[in-house]
Amino acid sequence: MRPKSGGSLRWRLVVLVVMFASAGPGVVASARAESGLEPPVGVSSGLSEPLSAAAVSDGAPPAAATPGPGPGEEMQSASQVEPEEPGDYDPWEPFNERMFWFNRQLDRFIVKPVAIAWDTILPDEAQQALGRAFDNVTMPRRFVNNLLQLKVEGAGRELARLLLNSTVGIAGLFDVAKAAGIEPSDKDTGQTLGVYGVGPGPYLVLPFLPPLTVRDGIGFGVDGLLTPISYVAPFAATAGLKAGETVNTRSLKLELFEDVEESALDLYSAVRNGYLQRRGKAIRE
Amino acid sequence: MRADRGLFADLFERSYNRLVLRFLGDRQTTFVAESVEGDRAVVQTTLIGGKDEQLSVEYRLASKHQRWEMTDVVLEGVSLAMNYRAQFNKILRNSSYDTLVRRMKGKVE
């Protein structure tokens, strides 16, 4: 359900998002130019040093994982997948921090408790099936953006997945297409804009929404229009669907969110950086 | 500063334990690919299992003193080292180096 290339779908579904994705080179360049901040020498130089505490095997090439038949598709060399460092450019930081705080309270007092209850009632398999059904509904967004990014093969896979999963997979509850080897190809409008060279613009946190950049915010709006169910269903039903989706996704991520929150020294910048890194990766791929 | 570098290593190790290592036992790790360029290497893996089913975990290694040492872990496209650096920058900008060290010690201890 979450193949390597499909991870970026989640970011738009969650109210408070902890590990999400993206910055184009524009942000990095402007951050360096505008903030004029030198990296703190003593600390950041430590980052590039090998951490002896975390040393792994000696001599032999790395074998951190059990060798075995991997998915094998879309392999890239190390240099191609080198993460790009997002900058610190955040002109709206005071506003963003207040909104971030608001969303976090919303999560703490409403979304998370509901998600915990949800998690108690529904077995994991049911949560995963619902998650798949929610994903199935947003296929037009992925289909259109695959086409716009000239990923015709990806668009074809999305179409095949919709046809298979909506029928044999019972309204998308089961991912029979994936079992048949048809992987999803997750693309969204913010990503398409980025592929066409639109810079991300400043980072922006809005109430009730996941973290965004201005570009991804616009994409987020267009993606909403690319969910045709919202044309036919009454507003309340669409809102209910969205709420259900949010709670379901949150309950699938209870543990991960907690781990990230617990590990962070400064949660706002951890979330911001995580989001920007992942979006940058999604656009480069 | 020297001691503080060790502090970061502890912090990093702690996060890695919390986010990845403690799952290695009961989840399956699939090897995806590896590539070596000089004294640097990248190993891509996928952690399978748990509710969310898949987590991409990429290890960045450097060869030092005849052995491979981990320099970074990239989870779902997010480099932990870069993520911490962003947090450090923010804390240094808004507070002070002492605050940063105090917060790191607070986590590690």
Kindly describe this structure.
Chain A contains 14 helices and 3 strands. By secondary structure, chain A is mostly helical. Chain A has a two-stranded antiparallel sheet with strand order 2-3. Chain A is globular, with a radius of gyration of 20 Å. The N terminus of chain A is likely disordered. Chain B contains 3 helices and 5 strands. In chain B, strands 1-2-3-4-5 form a 5-stranded antiparallel sheet. In chain B, helix 1 crosses helix 3. Chain B is globular and about 40 Å long. Classes of the chains: A mainly alpha (285), B alpha+beta (109). The interface between A and B is large, with 73 and 74 residues. Strand 1 of chain A pairs antiparallel with strand 4 of chain B, so a sheet runs across the interface.
Strand content of chain A: under 5%
Structural class of chain A: mainly alpha
How do the strands of the widest beta sheet of chain B line up side by side? Answer: 1-2-3-4-5
Outline type of chain B: globular
Provide the helix percentage of chain B.
Answer: 40-55%
Radius of gyration of chain A: 20 Å
Q: What share of residues of chain A is helical?
A: 55-70%
Q: State the helix count of chain A.
A: 14
Distance between the termini of chain A: 19 Å
Q: Runs of chain A with pLDDT <50, length 5+?
A: 1-80
Strand order of the largest sheet of chain A: 2-3
SSE order of chain A: HHEHHHHHHHEEHHHHH
Mean pLDDT of chain A: 76
What is the straight-line distance between the termini of chain B? 18 Å
β-strand percent of chain B reads: 35-45%
Number of helices of chain B: 3
Shape assignment of chain A: globular
Helix/strand order of chain B: HEEEEEHH
